[in-house]
What does this fold into?
Amino acid sequence: MNTNMTRSPNLGLYAVAAAIAIVGALWVGVPAGTLAFVGIALICPLVMMVMMGGMMGMHHGGSNDSSTKSHDRHPQDR
It folds into this structure.
């Protein structure tokens, strides 16, 4: 089983759901300016979630531990 598929959301379904919500809101009479304001207000949390999700894969790399000195890693170079 591919673990990347189980961890990443299906963004296409979210886009379809958002489009249906926008068309539905316009159909019941919500002004387009209100929808634009709500869209702008949602940009910040959405970008934060995308960026934090992208950072999840960064924990598998090397260590950034500042307590490890270069001579501790390579004793033959002293």
About this structure: The chain has a mean pLDDT of 75. DSSP finds four helices and no strands in the chain. The CA atoms of residues 18 and 24 lie 10 Å apart. The helical segments are 3-7, 11-28, 32-55, 70-73.
